[in-house]
Design a protein that fits this description.
- The complex is a heterodimer of chains A (about 280) and B (about 240).
- Chain A is α/β, with parallel strands linked by helices and about 280 residues long.
- In chain A, about 35% of the residues lie in helices and about 25% in strands.
- In chain A, the strands form 2 sheets. Chain A has a 6-stranded mixed beta sheet, with helices on both faces.
- The relative contact order of chain A is 0.16.
- Chain B is an alpha/beta fold.
- Helix content of chain B is about 35%, strand content about 30%.
- In chain B, the strands form 2 sheets. Chain B has a 6-stranded mixed beta sheet, with helices on both faces.
- Classes of the chains: A alpha/beta (about 280), B alpha/beta (about 240).
- At the A-B interface, α7, β10, α9 and α10 of A face α2 of B.
- Bound molecules: adenosine-5'-triphosphate (ATP), adenosine-5'-diphosphate, magnesium ion (2 copies) and zinc ion (ZN).
Amino acid sequence: METNEGAVLSLQNFRKQFGSGCEKCADLDERHLQRNYCPNCRTTYACADLSLDLYGGEILGVVGESGSGKSTLLRCLYFDEEASSGEAFLQGYKSGQVNIFTETGQQKRYIRNYHLGMVYQNPYMGLRMSFSSIGNIAEKLIAAGGRSVDAMTGRAASLLHKVDIPPYRFLETPATFSGGMQQRVQIAKALSNNPPILLLDEITTGLDLSVQAKVLDLIKGIQRELRISMLVVSHDLAVIRMLAERTIVMLDGKIVEQGLTDQVLEDPQHPYTQKLVQSLL
Amino acid sequence: MGEVLKVSGLNKHFALFPGPKVLVGCQDVHLVLGRGEFVGITGRSGSGKSTILKCIYRTYLPQSGHIWYDSARFGSLDLAKASERRIAHLRRQEIGYVSQFLSVLPRITAREIVESAMLDDGLDLPQVRQATEKLLAHFELDCSLWDVFPQTFSGGEKLRLNIARAMAKKPRLLLLDEPTASLDHESKARVKELLVKLKTEGTSLLGIFHDLEFMDGVCDRVLAMSAGRLTAQNLR
Ligand SMILES: Nc1ncnc2c1ncn2[C@@H]1O[C@H](COP(=O)(O)OP(=O)(O)OP(=O)(O)O)[C@@H](O)[C@H]1O
Ligand SMILES: Nc1ncnc2c1ncn2[C@@H]1O[C@H](COP(=O)(O)OP(=O)(O)O)[C@@H](O)[C@H]1O
Ligand SMILES: [Mg+2]
Ligand SMILES: [Mg+2]
Ligand SMILES: [Zn+2]
C-alpha cells in the first residue's frame, strides 16, 4: 500500500492494544468485548483498526468521548508509543512508500524531527519547564540539525513573536507562564522545524474562553499562512466547528462516522454522534 | 442556456434522536437552475426551503435523489454522492453559501475574513490585499471597520461582509438562505444591487426570500414550497 492521492498522511488498519489479546478477542469480535476491553484477557483495544487520510493543507477534526482512543492515536503517530499493528504512510517520507510504524528507532526520530510537530494537552509533556522558552525551541531545532546559535536564536525569537510571547519573557522558563502562554510556546516549538503535519491534542481544554479564542485564532492563522495539515483532537465541538473542514467521530477505539464538519454536526448519521451533538451543542 | 444545477427526486427526512419520530425535510423535489439564472424560493417557515439548500451544499446528506452540478473543475457530478474531498474543493472554489448569520472566529478581522477566502484560491498576498480593499469598499463597509472584529457589527454590516466573503471567490453557484431577513429597506436595496451585479458577472443564484417585492426585480423565476414539496414552479 501507499498514500492515497493528495494525502500527506494515510493510516490503514491501525491498532493499538494494551495487553496481549487472546483467541476470543484477537479479531475484535464484538461479542467478546465490553466496548474496547476484553474481560477474558484484560486487553484494552485503545485504537481498533483505524483508517484515515489527512490531506494537504487541511485540518481534520477528531472528536469522541473520553477514552475513545484519540490521544493514543496521536501518541502512536508521534512514536511516543508503539503501534501494535497497521500501517502509516507520509507523503513526504520515502515518497509515501514505506510504513513508518516499522521503521528503525533512528528513522522514527528523523521523522519526528523533520516531518511532525506535536502539541500535547498537558504542556508539561511538550515543554521542558526548566529551560527558557527560547531554549525549548532551540532544543527542537538542534534535534532537526540546527548548528548556528545565532540562526537558531533568531528563528526561536521570530516564532515566539508569532505566537505573541513578549520579547522580555523569551528567557524565562515556561513554568512561570499562564496555561495559554504555555500552549503558545508549545505551538511555537512544534512549528520550529517547519513540519508538514501538526498533531494537536486538546490544546484549548482548561483554558478560559478569551485565551481559548487566542489559541484558536493562532491555529487558524498558521493554517492559512503556512498551509500545514493538522490533526486536531478536541472534546469541544465548537472548537472543531471553527477549525476543521472534515471531522471523524471515534467511539471505543473505532471510527463511527466521518464527513464534512458541518454535516457531521448538523446532520449526524450515527446514533452516537446524534447523542454527542445533542448533549454538547 | 445550459444548466448549472439539476435536482431530481430529492428526499431528505430526519430521524430524531432518540426514538422513532421522523420529520420531513423535503420530498420529491425537482428543480433546474440555468447558467446565469437567479431562482428564488419562498414558503412558510418549516416548509423545507433551507433543507434543499443544505442538501445542495451537502451540510445535509439526502436519503435519495440526484443533485447534478456542472463543475468547472470536475464536469457534471452528483453532489448527493460526490466525495467529501470534491465537495470541500467545490466549497472553496465554486459554490458559495450565505446564511442569515455570520459565523466567525472571535478574533479575525473583516479584512482577514475576505483575505482568507481569496488565499484559498491560491492568489498571492499583495494581490489579495488589494482585491480585498476594493471589495470591502465596494460593499460600502466603512474603512474604519476593516480591521475590527465583526462580532460587533450591525446585522446589515455583517450581512454585507458575509456576501463580500462569498463574492471574493466569484462563485459559479451562490446559495442564499434568507440573506435579507431583518434588513432595513436601504440595506436590502444595496444587497439587491450587489446580487444583480454578481449575476451579470456570471454567477448562478438560488435564494430563499420571504419578500416577494425584493424578488420581483432580480429573480428570473420564483418557486413556492409547502410541507416539504415544491408547489409552484413560477410565481411570477
Ligand atoms: N498506557 C496504557 N495502558 C493501558 N491502557 C491505556 C494506556 N493508555 C491508554 N489506555 C486506554 O486506552 C483507551 C484510550 O485512551 P486515550 O488516552 O487514547 O483516550 P482519549 O480518547 O484521548 O480520552 P480523553 O478524551 O479522556 O483524553 C482508554 O481505555 C485508556 O484507558
Ligand atoms: N438538522 C435537522 N434535524 C432535524 N430536523 C430538521 C433539521 N433541519 C430541518 N429539519 C426539519 O425539517 C423541516 C424543514 O425545515 P427547513 O428546511 O429548515 O424549513 P424552512 O427553511 O423552509 O423554514 C422542519 O420540520 C425542520 O424542523
Ligand atoms: Mg486524550
Ligand atoms: Mg430556513
Ligand atoms: Zn481477550
